[in-house]
Amino acid sequence: MMNFLMIGESAVIAKCISESDPDSVIYILHQKDSVDNTVIDISNDIHFFQYGNREELDSIICLLVQTVKFDAVIPCFENSVEDANYCAKKLCVPRIGDIGAHIFRNKLELRNFCKKYDIPQPDYIFASSRVDVKKFYANRQQSSVVIKPRTLSASEGVVRINQASEIDEKWEFCESIASLHNEKDGLLVEEFIPGAEYSCEYIVDDKQIVFRNITKKFKYENGFFVESGHQVPGIISEKAKVNIYHFMDLLVKKAKIETAALHAEWIISSDDNPFLVECAGRRPGDRIVDLISISYEMNFLWMYCMLLCGLHPVFPSISSRFSQQNYFDFQPGIVTGFSHPEALKGFQHELTCSIGDYLSEISDSSKRRGYIIIDDIDYFSLERQMNCVLSLFHINTSKE
């Protein structure tokens, strides 16, 4: 029997632990001000605690350690990495390390850190007002720029500015979202670099890199930065892959990463050079975990849990098949029906809307309403199957 301490509520992680070790006990700590409608329905012994600050977190940990010996502390989301590292340090279990916990939680801190070590990334500034954005935009000869909050995930609040006339409106949009999360002193502004988008997943075990993967990313063509799908392993040039791995290795070394999963996003420019967009110090989101598990024939999430227990699981180095996930696209409006739902049969899929539901524009990841996963040993066969399904199945909506 193992005791897991989860920082944040993740039904996906809790379910994985339950299925892999039904006798394990799960303790979940989450912040009081977090908005979370997560329903965790598992048979394991599970305990919930809320905290508002480090002092309250300390009190809960001090209470629990009187009767519980924890095997692992798991950061469930981006905003729980620092607290997970703090708890793991107190409990003497594997952790990411203080530098990684800090810079992977704050995009501006990551930019400043990477600048010191010449890790390629977009040019950037921290803007305290829209005036700063206008100056940055003008200095870049009016090429596109991106503005974003520093600590949010899932593309929330991230917008692209293509014309000077858009700055005021998009600054207000991004600033309003950042303010909801207590970011009120400014926004991160970056040059927009066009190119193919990939993510890179790393596993570091006791300062040793033991797993690397490249994932191809797809985006909705709607002006936002929301991912519409992923493919594992991603098809990428050898030059780009070698460069991504080189700079990821450097980041791991300079940030003194101890034990962690890293999920970094990269853009490959037209001349095949990589630029780091961001990096998170936790397992990848969406269903990338599922795709890695399928393509490398392992239970990636459970092995990650074992990693954090200090059990040094052996990760495969070569994938055996291709897997791809696509989220469904739709027009904003009220759901009136579904075209060819039979096309989804036989494939892993999820549909999270019903007739009569109102669907908003897909401006962040939470607005997506379902996905399909297809895998095949042959890349071209996979591509044909996915294109066929997506050409048949549609979520029909009406604006009335």
Give a written overview of the molecule.
- The chain is globular.
- It folds into 4 domains: 3-93, Rossmann fold; 102-106 and 195-320, ATP-grasp fold, B domain (D-amino Acid Aminotransferase, Chain A, domain 1), CATH 3.30.470.20; 123-191, 2-Layer Sandwich (Dna Ligase, domain 1), CATH 3.30.1490.20; 325-398, no CATH class.
- The protein is α+β, with helices and mostly antiparallel strands.
- The chain has helices at 11-20, 54-64, 81-91, 98-103, 107-116, 130-139, 167-180, 238-254, 288-296, 300-308, 379-392, and strands at residues 3-7, 25-31, 45-51, 72-75, 124-127, 145-148, 159-161, 187-191, 196-205, 208-219, 227-232, 260-268, 274-280, 322-327, 333-339, 348-351, 358-359, 370-376, 394-398.
- SSE pattern: EHEEHEHHHEHEEHEEEEHEEHHEEEEEHE
Would you identify the CATH H-level superfamily of the largest domain?
A: ATP-grasp fold, B domain
Strands of the widest sheet, in order across it, are 13-12-9-10-11-14-18-16
* Number of DSSP-assigned strands: 19
State which percent range the strand residues make up.
Answer: 25-35%
Rg to the nearest angstrom?
21 Å
What profile does the largest beta sheet have?
Answer: 8 strands, antiparallel
Quick check: average pLDDT?
95
Termini gap: 55 Å
- Broad structural category: alpha+beta
Q: Which regions have little confidence, pLDDT < 50, spanning 5+ residues? A: none
Shape designation: globular
User: And the CATH topology of the largest domain?
Assistant: D-amino Acid Aminotransferase, Chain A, domain 1
Q: In the CATH classification, which architecture of the largest domain applies?
A: 2-Layer Sandwich
**Class of the largest domain in CATH?**
Alpha Beta
Helical content stands at 25-40%
Query: How many distinct folded domains?
Result: 4
User: Helix count, per DSSP?
Assistant: 11
GO molecular function: ATP binding; metal ion binding; oxidoreductase activity; phosphoribosylamine-glycine ligase activity
InterPro entries: ATP-dep_AA_Ligase (IPR052032), ATP-grasp (IPR011761)
Enzyme class: ligase
Organism: Bifidobacterium longum subsp. infantis
